[in-house]
Fold this sequence. Notes:
Layout: H1 2-8, E1 16-18, H2 31-35, H3 46-60, E2 66-68, H4 74-78, E3 87-89, E4 95-98, H5 108-122
Parallel strand pairs: 1-2
Antiparallel strand pairs: 3-4
Amino acid sequence: xxxxxxxxxxxxxxxxxxxxxxxxxxxxxxxxxxxxxxxxxxxxxxxxxxxxxxxxxxxxxxxxxxxxxxxxxxxxxxxxxxxxxxxxxxxxxxxxxxxxxxxxxxxxxxxxxxxxxxxxxxx
Length: 123
């Protein structure tokens, strides 16, 4: 996603939306997180979620803006985002690309192609 952000940063708004922790140690910790020393409890407060969003953005080296879903998980539910998903939304507010659920169907290249088509059409 970093490449998509960098490619289109002057033409489109791109955001990483942090939702409920996908790999919380008290729910579904992964071996790769364990090996990397990443141990995150599922958030119980918005402050915890914001703090982990910041920490995760630093770990991932994200340069794009990071937004945080509220504790009612409205964004996650509205976009069927858990554990991860990519959407491209046109200037008209309509969904132009809906990626499959991650991690197996997480496809930044396909999202980048869809965004490129929008930028060319609107350009």
